[in-house]
Prior knowledge:
The protein is built from 3 helices and 14 strands. The N and C termini lie far apart (34 Å). Helices cover 10% and strands 41% of the residues. The protein is globular, with a radius of gyration of 16 Å. The protein is mainly beta. A hairpin with a 3-residue loop joins strand 1 (2-4) and strand 2 (8-12). The protein has helices at 39-44, 174-178, 182-188, and strands at 2-4, 8-12, 19-23, 26-28, 31-33, 53-60, 64-70, 77-83, 85-92, 103-109, 115-118, 122-128, 132-139, 148-150.
Amino acid sequence: MGKDMGKITVETCEIEGLKVITPAVFGDERGYFMETYNYNDYKEAGIDQVFVQDNQSASKKGVLRGLHFQINYPQDKLVRVLKGEVYDVAVDLRKGSKTFGKWHGVLLSEENKKQFFIPKNFAHGFLVLSDYAEFAYKCTDFYHPNDEGGLFYADEEIGVKWPIPEGMELILSEKDKKWGGIKEYLKNE
């Protein structure tokens, strides 16, 4: 599954197009160094995208953001966690895909330093498992207001198995509480 490209190791997932990247980390008594992105290495790994915007967010434990997608200006995303730990999920919404409606989840943390590459036309979301998390991502299109679509995080048809610890209170935006499921999404297509 994993392919070592020198500075990065790339794992493919059962959903075509999704990739989990682990960078090489060089550490000594002073701390560590790693390349978080290098166009040539990523191109060799099959991620030949031009990223035009970098975003960063901070969230506290129990925050669930998602599942979001862009309607008219879809973006490829390369996501990672700078601080803390999140469970990151992608749902395939590509028309005609043999894995349409399927999801894949990855634990991203400050410790494992993994990155998750999510192609265009996937819904994306994450759940914060640590007390605090900083999340960063690169994307291939600019933010367009009013272009956000969404799926309900707990839609039974999709069936994401969020690792919600016993007693965790989920914190969702008003918008994220109201998205429909994949059946409604298909009706609106």
